[in-house]
Amino acid sequence: MKTFNNPPKLNTDRRFSDNMTSSHALTLKAKQGEKGNSKGTPYALPAFNITTIQGINAAFDAFEILGASGVLAVSNSALKHFGGGDPITGLEVAADYIASRAKRSTIQVATHLDHGDYTTEAGRKVVQGAVQHLTGVMADNSTDHANKCGRSLEENIGYTREVVNMAHPLGVSVEGELGVLAGEEDEDTKSEISTYTQPDEFEQFITETGVLMIAPTIGTMHGPNKGKPGTKVKLNIELAHELLKIADRVQPETIFVAHGASTLYPQVVEYAVEKLQSLGAGMAEKYGQTWKNYVGTDWEQIQGLIGAGFAKVNTDTENRQTFLSALLGAVNENAAKVDIRWYDKKTTEALTQSYLVKCIMADNYGVWHEPKINVEKFIFDLHVSLADTLKNAQ
């Protein structure tokens, strides 16, 4: 087996543009329970996968309302969307816009490439571009997609270590993955197989790669169908604690990441079905059951992961659902409104509510300043405008 010299340490002296820092810096604060000048119980940062400018605006609005730390994640398919089919152009567009928002912000954020694949020529170009434009990258080299199987530990370590060698000296944090997560997030992130992270491989992986962030597989899934309706996804919390003991012994600053952590709020599903019924034309009969069949990850189990070192929880599907549900509501309200900005406003404000509730659930508020609302009074309800929701939470 190939042996490695000591991996390069993350350059923590690197200074990014105003109010931006590495993914690891923000999540380490969360793992250590740091808010302001005090330390308390650990909390987590929801990493929101953003695909549009509106999604970025909604996330910043939510972070600033709560005084929360922010992680904005972009997938390869999202970058193609931002860049008119070219992910490198998309990197420039998304990174520049986020940096411009951050300069005027009251909080700190990190940008993160989600599921960067360093095993193909096209994937390597995106990861290399992300190291130049973002503050964190994921080196997802755990799956051999061509053969639909897990990649060997040695290959995974080798590819991931290449990314660490490139990124850490520049202050860009690296997230690795060990094990295979099943499900489909989008056309560029899907797998038909799932394997748990093995503790004996875990220690070797973090030692030889030098990653400070890692996504172990403990039972979460990508996509909107994480199980059968009426059942709860079962996470292996015991395995998470076993891995945490190893991490704390080898490198205490290791951050665990939960992929597939979308909750899928029942009030969003109910609102969507309600609006489908109002639209008529058999819409509820055609699509209502699909909405009712969506199954997310039980939040109580995600909270159990936070106690086991998970300081970054990735969400995407729940926010897509919120957007679509709000769009159905907007069309129902006025299907002849010839003003794209009106629809943008409706969906963006709905996304802001979705981001707010997830940050509050993860205890990610009051980090940089006191929240502008009473978080205990906040109620996520798409029937109520964002302005009235915030007013009711004073």
Keywords:
single chain; 394 residues; TIM Barrel
Protein described:
The protein has one domain (23-263, 298-317, 362-392): TIM Barrel (Alpha-Beta Barrel), CATH 3.20.20.70. It has 14 helices and 14 strands. It is of the alpha/beta class. 51% of the residues are buried. α2 crosses α13 (340-361). The strands form 4 sheets. Strands 3-4-5-6-9-12-13-14 form an 8-stranded parallel barrel, surrounded by 10 helices. The protein starts with 22 loop residues before the first helix and ends with a helix. It has helices spanning 23-31, 53-66, 76-82, 87-103, 121-133, 153-167, 199-209, 237-250, 266-279, 283-293, 299-306, 317-333, 340-361, 386-392, and strands at 34-35, 38-39, 45-49, 70-74, 109-116, 136-139, 143-144, 149-150, 173-178, 183-186, 189-191, 213-216, 255-258, 310-315.
Short overview:
The chain is an alpha/beta fold. 45% of the residues lie in helices and 14% in strands. The strands form four sheets. It has an eight-stranded parallel beta barrel with strand order 3-4-5-6-9-12-13-14, surrounded by ten helices.
Walk me through the topology.
Blueprint: H1 23-31, E1 34-35, E2 38-39, E3 45-49, H2 53-66, E4 70-74, H3 76-82, H4 87-103, E5 109-116, H5 121-133, E6 136-139, E7 143-144, E8 149-150, H6 153-167, E9 173-178, E10 183-186, E11 189-191, H7 199-209, E12 213-216, H8 237-250, E13 255-258, H9 266-279, H10 283-293, H11 299-306, E14 310-315, H12 317-333, H13 340-361, H14 386-392
Parallel strand pairs: 3-4, 3-14, 4-5, 5-6, 6-9, 9-12, 12-13, 13-14
Antiparallel strand pairs: 1-2, 7-8, 10-11
